[in-house]
Design a protein that fits this description.
15 helices; seven-stranded mixed sheet; alpha/beta; 485 residues; binds zinc ion; 35% helix; eight-stranded mixed sheet
């Protein structure tokens, strides 16, 4: 009896040594939690990103500032190889000034933003608006004399506004539809691309379109391929646009005063991902990588707080926490803060083609964990149809329930940086977060400010990612894979 107990202890000890685990796994998870709750840097990081740096459009000086700042934090925390990794992006852009004022029939300052990569107006432009929202291409061509130098209203008055969030999939056991919701969009009689080309030919001074959000919220994105000689493009609050469009339809067009100044950056056509790691300790496993990431870039009209400073902070703070444990993981844990997400997942795609472009290299990537859509607490992961991985993730989620974890769901979510991993058959998963006010109010809008995240949410999200990264770096088996999709 005594002998068998002793033998069992020896076997347990041998198993622990051979797996490289020098401490009780439960103990390490408790230390992750303590570090994340009691010595958190999450709120400080979040304030720096959102208040001090602000919006971080890819290619802008602000994005570079954020990327360099992140490298410095990773250095400060003693991570290995903190670096900027370039890929070709195109020219940068920055907004320097925008003002749109109604000057007749009465004075009203309008809530207005430039589309990203729009050129400037030629100084201050004033005049009565010309409305073409209800005009066909041939009608617009016939108006070209009237459009020369004009401030043009390009879209129909809005009748349908963005007024709801997508359903929250993390909260109950029903099967759910996931992915980005299709939101109402402003409409024009002539398709927008064709319309802008016609306005360019006619020599219009500025094009104004509505945002489909409510109550002064303005959703704005932009196209980095916009030529320097395009018509300057401005988006204004939907309700204000409707006033201008209705007056114009009634034959009493309002007068506007418009000034837009923007700046291009041509010298460096690269953008940069931020990468740093915690080297693995197990000689057999340290070449394998557990990758965690989030996009650091944002659109340009607010602070990029819920999209996606909260995700970037969760990943940074998770790395700080794991580094602070003073015991190394078996596999390498690497963090990537992507750029170019908002222009088509460009940073993540570039990284995959730079580093994981062969079957051998892809075999080394154990899992990619991404933190993007939504805000608030992390509830679980979207499992992208991967049932075997879900069984493992369900085990890892269990000890986080008292911190607000609810469930992993088998469905997937599109439109963020794990997608290119899935496209080449690598296991990539995104966290489930709260969507309260995310679709309706903050995502890609002038209302994306930090108040939608609490300090507790930031801490919890970081602990969540750190816990999953640690588990993935320690267990013997790799995460099961699915065919490329
Ligand atoms: Zn986004």
């Amino acid at each position: 009896m005594r002998l068998s107990v002793a033998l069992a202890s020896v076997l347990v000890l041998a198993a622990a040594l051979s797996s490289g685990q020098t401490s009780d796994p439960g103990d390490i998870l408790a230390r992750i939690r303590t570090e994340g709750l009691q010595r958190s840097r999450a709120l400080t990081l979040y304030r720096t990103l959102t208040d001090d740096i602000g919006a971080r459009l890819t290619g802008s000086p602000a994005h570079m500032q954020a990327a360099r700042w992140a490298v410095d934090r990773f250095k400060e925390w003693g991570l290995a190889n903190p670096r900027l990794e370039p890929y070709e992006f195109g020219r940068g852009w920055q907004l320097e000034h925008v003002s749109v004022e109604m000057t007749g029939p009465r004075y009203v300052p309008l809530i207005a933003y430039a589309e990203a990569w729009s050129p400037s107006t030629k100084g201050v432009v004033s005049g009565r608006v010309v409305y073409v929202g209800d005009k066909t291409a041939s009608q617009i061509q016939a108006m070209s004399a009237q459009l020369r130098g004009a401030i043009v209203l390009t879209h129909l008055p809005l009748t349908e506004f963005v007024d709801h969030d997508r359903p929250q999939p993390g909260l109950d056991e029903r099967p759910v539809a996931t992915g980005n919701p299709s939101l109402p969009q402003p409409r024009s009689t002539t398709p927008a691309n064709e319309l802008m080309a016609l306005l360019g030919k006619a020599g219009a001074s500025a094009a104004i379109r509505p945002s489909a959000y409510r109550d002064g919220t303005v959703g704005v994105t932009g196209n980095r391929a916009t030529p320097s000689d395009a018509v300057p493009a401005i988006v204004i609050a939907g309700e204000q646009y409707n006033v201008l469009a209705r007056l114009a339809v009634q034959g009493r067009p309002a007068s506007l005063r418009v000034e837009l100044r923007t700046r291009y950056f041509e010298e460096d056509r690269n953008s940069y991902n931020v990468v740093a790691e915690i080297p693995g300790q197990d000689p057999m496993l340290r070449d394998q990588v557990v990758l965690i990431g989030a996009h650091l870039d944002s659109w340009h009209t607010a602070s990029g707080a819920t999209d996606n400073a909260d995700g970037a902070v969760a990943v940074m703070e998770a790395m700080r926490i794991v580094r602070a444990l003073a015991t190394g993981p078996r596999r390498t844990i690497r963090a990537a803060l992507w750029s170019g997400e908002e222009q088509g997942l460009l940073g993540a795609r570039a990284y995959l083609s730079q580093h994981f472009n062969t079957p051998v290299s892809r075999d080394q990537l154990v899992v990619y964990l991404n933190d993007d859509p939504g805000s608030g607490k992390t509830l679980g992961f979207y499992m992208e149809g991967n049932r075997e991985a879900k069984a493992i993730f369900d085990r890892w989620l269990a000890p986080l329930r008292d911190l607000g974890a609810t469930r992993n769901i088998i469905e997937g979510i599109g439109s963020t940086d794990h997608v290119p991993f899935n496209e080449v058959g690598l296991p990539g998963f995104n966290v489930i977060k709260d969507f309260s006010a995310y679709d309706e109010r903050t995502r890609h809008t002038n209302a994306d400010y930090p108040e939608r995240m609490s300090e507790d949410d930031l801490k919890q999200s970081a602990i969540f990612i750190a816990t999953f990264a640690w588990q993935a770096a320690m267990q013997d088996e790799k995460i099961p894979r699915m065919p490329a999709k």
